[in-house]
Design a protein that fits this description.
The protein is mainly alpha-helical. It has 6 helices and 2 strands; from the N terminus they run αααααββα. The chain starts with a helix and ends with a helix.
Amino acid sequence: MANERIESVIRKLERGISKSLEIFNTLSSEDWETPISDGSNSWSIKDLVEHFIYSEENMLALAQDIASGGSGAPLEFDIEEFNRQEMGKMSHLNPGQLLRLLEGVRATTVKWVQNLDEGSLDLEGWHPVLGTTNLEGVLTAIYAHQLIHMRETLPRLRRG
C-alpha cells in the first residue's frame, strides 16, 4: 500500500477528474463552443479540455523527469508558446473523444503515481510556474491547474 502522502495526491487527482467529467458530461453541443475567455484568442470548452489533455501529458513527463533524477523543465520554457504550439492539434476530435482522452491521461498519471515510493515525492526540479519545487508539488499542480480553470469557467457557462 502506498503511503499517506501518495494516497493524498491520488485522491486529489481522482476527485478532480471526477468533478470535471461530471460537469463536462452535462454540457450541450452549444456549451462546448461557448467562449470562456475574452479577446482575439478566446477559448471554448472544447479548447479547454484539449488544453487539459496536453498540459497533463506535459506535466506528467516533467514529473517523470524529476523522479528519474532530472532537473525538470528547461529554465527557458515558455508556457504561452507551448500553448500556441499545442492548441488545435486535437480540434478534429469530438467532445466524447476528448473526454475519453482526458480520462485516459488522468488514469495514466494516477497509475504512475501509485508506483512511486515516498522518497520520490521530495525530489526537486524546475516547474515553469512554481519554480523549484518537489515532485509532490508538481503532481499537486496537475490537480490545481484543472481546478483553477474549472473555477474560472463555470461562471461563464452559467451566464450563457
